[in-house]
Structures are given as C-alpha cells and as structure tokens.
Amino acid sequence: MTQLWRRRALRRIAPSGGIFASERGRPHLDGKKWYNRAMQVKKLRIVRSKEHERLFRALESSRVPGDLGRPVFGHTLDFLLRTQPLMDDLRAKHGPNFRLHLAGRPVVIIGGPDAVREVLLDRDKNFSSELGWKKSIGKLFARGLMLKDFDEHRADRRLMQMAFRNEAMRGYVDTMTAHINTAVGNWPRELKLYPALKQLTLDMASSIFLGLALGPESKAVDEAFVAAVNASIALVRSELPVFAYGRGMRGRRTLERFFATLIVERRKNPGADLLSELCRAKSEDGERFSDREISDHMIFLMMAAHDTTTSAMSSLVHLLLENPEWQERAREEVLARGPAPISWDDRSALPVLDRCFDEAIRLFPPVPYTSRQSLRDCTLAGFEIPADVLIAPAALVTHRLPEFWSSPDRFDPDRFSPERAEHTKHTHVYFPFGGGAHVCIGLHFARIQVKAVMHELLGRYRVVNPRGPRRPRSFKSVPMACPTDGLPVALERL
Predict the structure, then answer these.
(1) Which of 169, 201, 178 minimizes the C-alpha distance to 344?
(2) Could you tell me the pLDDT band of residue 467, with boundaries at 50, 70 and 90?
(3) What is d(CA 162, CA 174) in angstroms, rounded to the nearest whole number?
(4) Which of 445, 435, 423, 310 is nearest to 369 (CA)?
(5) With helix as H, strand as E and coil as C, how does 361-388 read?
(6) Which of 15, 63, 325, 361 is positioned for an S-S bond with 432, CB 3.0–4.6 A?
(7) Domain layout of the chain by residue ranges
C-alpha cells in the first residue's frame, strides 16, 4: 500500500517524459531513492527547505525511528485531525521516542519518561523553550514566561511568583467562589457547557487577575484569546485577516491595546489583583517590570488561566458523563463535605474528585505537548540529535504508555489512589503541568479553581447527556483538548 501511494504521488509530479520518468512512464528508481528524489521537485519545496532536508537526513542517519508520513504533507493533517490515534499508532510502531514530518520540518516526539526528564530538567542547557515555541506562538504570545530561557526566565519567574504567594491566593479564591456560586446557580437546565465554563473562567480571571468585571468587553477579549490560540497551529503564516494566523495576530493587537490602558490605571491606583501585584513587583536589586513586559506576561497568564482550565474542566465533566458511577462517587463526597464554599485551605479536600481530575488530564492533557529546540548537537534517548531540531515531550504519548499505566485508555481514577499510585512509577511519567524550570506557575491555582467549580456543580445538579448515553462525543487534542460539539449537557437539580 505504501509503495502504491508513493507511485501515485510520483506520477502526479513526474508524468511520462518528466525528469524522473522512464520511456514507459514509470520511475527509474526503486523504493526510497525515487521517493526522496521526488521530494526535491520544485513544486514540493514549499513544504521542505534545504535546512530541513539536512535535519531529516541527520536524524535518519542517527537512526531516530520514524517515517515521512503522507506525500507532501507528511504527518501534518493527521496530527491536526486525529492527533491521539496518530500518536498511538506511531508509538506502537516505533516506540515512545520517534520523529514526525510536520509542516515541512522534522519534529522528534519524546514520550519515554527518561528522555522527558532529560529534556524538561535540561541540566546541560541543551534545549531552548523560547526557540521551541517561537514559530508557533512567538508572535501570538510574545515574551510570555514560556518563551524565555535560563537566567531571563528565572528572573521573571521569581518576580511573578510574588503574585502567587499564599496570602494573595487566599484572596483570589475568596473572590473566585463568589463568581462560581452566582454563575452555576443561574445556568439553564440545558446548555453547552464548554462555552459556559469558558465565560465563567474568563470572568474569574478578569476579577482576580485584573480587578474588574469585563462587561461588554468580555466578548471581544474572549474572541481575541480564541483567535490567538487557534492561530498557533495555522499552516499558513500570513497576517491577512482571511487566514487563521492573521485573525490571531489581530486578536493579539486587541489584547495589547486592552492591557496598555489597564496598566496605566493600575500604576496610578493599584488594587489587590494580580495585575497590581506585577506593577508593584520588585526584585532584590530593585528591578521592576516595564509596561510592555507586564502586558506580555498578562496576555499569556490570562490565556492559561481560562483556556487551559476550561479545557481541563470540560474533559473532567465529559468523563463523568461517560462514567456515571464516578460522578455519583464524587457527588457523595461533595455532599458529605457540605455547601460551604471551597477555600484555599481545602487544597487536600475531596480526594475522590482530585483523582477524577488527575485522570481526566492524563487522558486529555490541556497542553498535549511542550516544545523545545536543540541548541547544539547532543545525545538524547540514545540518539544523536543535531542542533536546531524541534523536540516535543508529549504527554499524549507518555500518559498512555502501557508499561506504566494499566489499561491506559480506560478512565480509572483509582490509579491515582495511594494504594496504586501509578503516577509515581517514574518522576516524569505524568506531567500535565509541564516540568522542570517551566512547570506551570499557576498549577495550584488551577487545581483549586477546578475543585471549586465542580464542588458547586455536583452539589447542585446531576449532569446528564441530553442526547442519550449512546451518542459519542469527540474531542480534539490540539492546540488544546476541547469538545468539538461544545459539550451539551442537561442539569437535573438534586
């Protein structure tokens, strides 16, 4: 079959009498030789540059397992449309570490936990997060914390960490629970839960991080974030508004104007919100963030605070719908605790709900992979990796390795129980929040936020599928996990 589509691809670009055709209209060369030659035809140069050809050859010579995927497009379309099945297929074929052909360049997927640990901890400073994310989100989320390396990243993170100290978090959670109580209590009996959760998390992020209610601006700000996130996987990198990338860049400019006005106001009249904390933040040497630095950090933080959290919650609700026995177990725990709002001191409360959440983001990690670029020739997972190669530690692979996870495709929250603790079999077999220096700065806030919303939702309603239990749902995995149908639900009051 492989030879058949390769032959068909060649005939389309090298007809009878063409440069690679024999007198009978068939290729002179067999197997890889004629296919690799065909890939040099000018028509295909749009997807593979000379530099990328060099990297392909270097990775092949170092015996990194993998293949070229489909003609011209490689694995790109499969990666966008059927991400998890593609990862499962390639992992079964090549092992946990393999190479892909994405958008004309090689990408090395890292799924083995030993190699994941080496990349995320990066003790030798071989891998750049800034360069790894630059092409996909470099302009969209410019100079956010994820796009900084080493000393610069450490300095900025230390300043930002002040905004996530315990005293500040207590106030954030108190503000958050008031929003949750009002919003969840006013939801209609049938709704699409994903956009409802997204609106709720945006409202909470606005109050906590910005110290304001967005009001009429809410729709424009949310659309700007959605456009920027979707643009991260755009194949056409044109800033014309007819393209997804162009709409994303327009969204970025909307956010820049929005935050520029707010920063001026918070410099004059600081409050108890995170934006004010960043305006006040000062290093031991007296260094402060500039207005542009604050804007860049806030755009990135606001995206993470509502987009990734919405992704995690929608995955959790989806799996509780598919597994009603676990929804009932979580509800019993919530009702036993009582109706009092979740506080910062409840981080260890509701262990059954915690296990359900951990399992949801194992199966549907909000950030399916992280991205690095090799800065120099190095050895990784036993392979010689040349400089300038994209390296992607992929939770989509690691979180489903059968040698670490029993029945890895099954929803089984008890795998996180103290008795089984499958996530502790290796330090880096589970990394939904990243790891190393770039571990998510707001992971504790995200966890308490999800717990507070689910406490209110499960304490009020039984959540059911209005279309019946046999109607399957589909989730896309990139750029972040989310339901393709908006997650319609019916809420039955208890």
Answers:
(1) 169
(2) confident
(3) 18
(4) 435
(5) HHHCCCCCECCEEECCCEEECCEEECCC
(6) 361
(7) 26-53, 150-341+438-493
H or E element, residue 467: none
In whole angstroms, give the CA distance from residue 356 to residue 326. 8
H/E element holding 25?
A: none
Residue written as tokens 């009249």? 269
Q: Strands of 190-192's sheet, edge to edge?
A: 190-192, 488-493, 461-464
Q: pLDDT category, 360, cuts 50, 70, 90?
A: very high
Q: Which long-range contacts (CB under 8 A, 24 or more apart) does 332-339 make?
A: 334/454, 334/455, 334/458, 334/459, 335/459, 337/455, 339/459
How far from 96 is each of 115, 133, 152, 191, 396, CA to CA, in Å? 10, 22, 32, 39, 10
Which of 68-82, 146-160, 320-334 is most confident? 320-334
- Tokens linked to 202: 């945006």
SS3 content of the chain, % helix, strand, coil (to 5): 55, 10, 35
SS3 140: coil
Give the angle subtended at the CA of 275 by the CAs of 272 and 277, to the nearest 5°: 60
Q: How many residues does the chain have?
A: 494
Closest CA to 297 of 259, 253, 268, 262: 259
Residue 168, by phi and psi: left (phi above 0), alpha (psi -120 to 50) or beta? alpha
Is the separation of the CB atoms in 201 and 180 below 8 Å?
Answer: no
| DSSP H or E segment with residue 192 | strand 190-192
Element (H, E) at 179: helix 166-185
How confident is the model over 227-256, as pLDDT tens digits? 888 888 888 888 888 899 999 999 999 999
What gap in Å lies between CA 220 and CA 255, rounded to an integer? 9
Percentage of residues in the chain having pLDDT higher than 90: 64
For residue 70, CA distances in Å to 6, 102, 284 come to 8, 10, 54
Beta carbons of 467 and 153 less than 8 angstroms apart: no
Of the pLDDT bands very low, low, confident and very high (cuts 50, 70, 90), residue 304 is confident
Which tokens belong to 78?
């499969």
Fold assignment, 150-341+438-493: Cytochrome p450 (1.10.630)
Beta bridge partners of 27: 21
